[in-house]
Structure formats: C-alpha cells, structure tokens
Design brief:
143 residues, 2 domains, single chain, alpha+beta, elongated
Length: 143
C-alpha cells in the first residue's frame, strides 16, 4: 500500500479488463434522448412566452397588411376567464372580375369543460381594389 491512494486506484484500473463499448442501438437511443431534452428545453419557454404574450396583448396577427393572407391567434375570453385559443387563417379564393376574396377557416381549442377542438367555422370575405387599396364589398360571392 502506498502513501498516495490514487496510485493504487490507477494501478488496479490498469489490471481490470476493458468493458465492451456501447451497442449501436443504445448510442442512437442516447442521442435521441439528448435531442428530445434539447427540443423540450427550447420549446417549453417558447410556449410559456407565447401564452404570456397572448394574455397581455389579446392576439397575434401575422401579415396584417394583406387581408387575403392573414393568420390570427387569440385568447377566447368568456365570463369565466380564458377558456381557449382561437386561430383564423385566411387564404385567397376565386372571385369574378376585379374582386378578390379571402376564404377564412377558424379553429378553436377549448379547455373549459372537456378539452376539445372545434373546426366548424369558415367564411368568405370579398374585397374590391380602389385607389390601390382593398376595400371590403358585399357585391361579390366566393366560389
């Protein structure tokens, strides 16, 4: 036995046989797990930040300058407080002549009673171009 105890550990570890390397499937599983943890560590703060932003500002509108291509995310508020999220997505639809229309689909994620997804709302809005601006009109019908 020597005075330095770490020398004994080093000498005994040199006499031990090497352990078999990790199998390929275990290595892949470890990498997937590390990737999953990394994604969750980035995704969770993003979702919390998005919910906080919605609570403060009521809605997020993407591409608000073009009514034909707009996405909107908002909190559904009722007397009981926030009861869900609403998402509307507008995409161009066919119309006659100089009229341009947008077909909007609305999706609700409600959590007030049972958690449910409602996708039964959609509508069409038509616009006429006047003085280089789109102005809503009731004189056209979406196709």
């Amino acid at each position: 036995m020597s005075i330095e105890p770490w020398l004994d550990d080093a000498a005994s570890s040199a006499q031990r046989p090497e352990t078999a390397p990790h199998s390929q499937t275990r290595l892949i599983a470890e990498r997937i797990a590390i990737g999953g943890v990394a994604v969750l560590s980035l995704l969770i703060p993003l979702v919390i930040g998005l919910l906080f932003y919605l609570a403060v500002n009521d809605e997020i509108v993407v591409n608000a300058d073009d009514p034909l291509r707009t996405a909107r995310l908002w909190m559904v508020m009722e007397k009981a407080g926030a009861t869900g999220l609403g998402l509307s997505i507008a995409a161009p639809a066919q119309a006659a002549g100089s009229v341009q229309c947008a077909f909007t689909t609305v999706i609700f994620l409600k959590w007030d009673k049972p958690l449910r997804l409602e996708t039964n709302a959609s509508y069409c809005t038509c616009y006429e171009r006047r003085n280089n601006q789109l102005i809503q009109t009731n004189n056209a019908v979406c196709r």
